[in-house]
Structure formats: structure tokens, C-alpha cells
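Translate sequence into C-alpha cells.
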Amino acid sequence: MIPRRDALQRLTLLLGGVLSAQLTAGLMGQVINLGPSVSVSAEQQKLLAEAADTIIPTTDTPGAKEAGAEQFIVRVMRDCYVREDKEKFYAGLARLEEDCREQYHKGFAELDAAQRKELMTKTAKSNKAFFLRLKELTVAGYFCSEIGASKALEYLPIPGRFEGDVPYQAGQKAWTL
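Result follows.
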């Protein structure tokens, strides 16, 4: 059986490198940036957790917050992005909080789900680069977590024999790598 990180690396190569180089390195657990980093406060981590949970909320499966996607985002940003990209990302996060306080007079973590979704939709339009990076990192962090791989995707810890042509049932979960 092929390890998940190797499978993701090969999948990325097959897709023509659709995932960024930094994200691919992060998925493989590599550290490609040894330069100066940006410190991340507990408040920023909490905001990241809430923002990620807005992108992948808890439904019949656990959400991004429960999967610890914010920890993945912090690690990949620290280990794989250059300082300028980190500063832009965390400035986008600060702008999200500022927009929230301007519009709702309270922090992002205090909003209800509908207000969070509305604010994230506005952010996707007004600060598209930040939102796309946040979404990319959230999705990767979620589906590489144990919760994402075993609860949101179809998972066989010991797959047994190879069956190349298995019928897909309508509404069935996608298979994990």
C-alpha cells in the first residue's frame, strides 16, 4: 500500500502541478523555507480555525476545526512559504477580522454561521488571493487529517485485494488516497 503523502505527490504530478509547490511540499512534510518566519498569536490561530470551519463546516461529518486544519495551515505557512507570502496571508486574515468588526461590531469567532458565510463570500470577492490560499490550505489540511480521510472520505485501512472496476453508488463518498 502506498503512503498517502506519496499518493498525493503522484496525484499532483498527474494533475500537472495544480497544487502550489509550497502546498505540495507541506503535504510531504518538507521544510523548504528556512528563512525568517512570522509569529502567529493564539488569537490568529483561533481566527484561522473559525475561518477554516466556515469553509468546511460540521455537517454529518466533522468540520475543519475539529480536524485541526488551522494547525496544518500554520505549519505549512511557517515551513513552506517565504516571509513576504506569510505577511500577505496574515494581513488578509487581519483584514477579515477588521471587516467583521466594521460590519458586525464583533469578532469573527462571535458571529453565527450565516454571518460568517456572508463575510467569507464578500472576502472571496474583495480579497480573492487571500481567500483562495485560505481555501486551498483548508481543504488540503482537512482531507490529509485522520478525520477528513476516514470520516469524510471512504476509507479502507486494509483494502485487501485489488478490484479495478467497482460500481459507484449514487451519493457514495469519494475514496481516500
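Note: The two ends are 10 Å apart (CA to CA).
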